[in-house]
Amino acid sequence: MSFETIWxxxxxxxxxxxxxxxxxxxxxxxxxxxxxxxxxxxxxLLGFMAMFIYGVAYHVIPRFRGKxxxxxxxxxxxxxxxxxxxxxxxxxxxxxxxxxAMGNYSLALFGTIQVVAVGxxxxxxxxxxx
Length: 130
Ligand code: HEM
Ligand code: HEM
Description:
Blueprint: H1 3-28, H2 33-65, H3 72-99, H4 101-129
Helix pairs in contact: 1-2, 1-3, 2-3, 2-4, 3-4
Bound molecules: protoporphyrin IX containing FE (2 copies).
């Protein structure tokens, strides 16, 4: 298994743990919902679901296709950027309520980095399938 596969799956497990804790804290303390619902949703969906898929995809796509991954370097940058962007987004969602416009800029910045990271996955998976 590659470094990227191992660490995408490990990150996914960490985000799953974090995501369900955020979920249960909202259930216990409903007045937190406004602040942490989008963080909960994205930590679970971009963190657990997407990162698990990335990790498994980097392992199985080259094997199913019978050739090497298009770029290991791109996968490494993807791993780093997806995590930086998700953590940034996770904090930016609630910060919009305390920092106002700054929180929005922060979300836009980390959201854009997330789009770039997703783009890296799309290119790498697509080119490997070529
Ligand atoms: C212990 C596990 C979990 C608990 C206690 C929990 C709890 C909650 C609560 C209280 C809400 C707010 C519901 C509302 O708006 O009234 C919520 C929303 C949400 N949860 Fe969870 N959750 C859990 C796990 C998950 C997982 C594993 C995922 C995804 C893989 C997930 C995805 C979502 C999403 C996407 C929303 C937002 C839904 C919307 O837009 O209305 N949750 N969750
Ligand atoms: C670049 C990546 C993404 C960005 C920048 C982004 C941004 C946002 C923003 C700004 C909201 C509104 C939050 C609010 O209510 O204040 C939102 C909501 C939501 N997004 Fe995303 N999103 C991204 C990717 C995704 C992906 C990949 C999924 C699903 C797999 C997803 C699922 C959702 C859901 C379920 C909600 C509603 C959450 C709620 O009820 O609070 N998002 N997203």
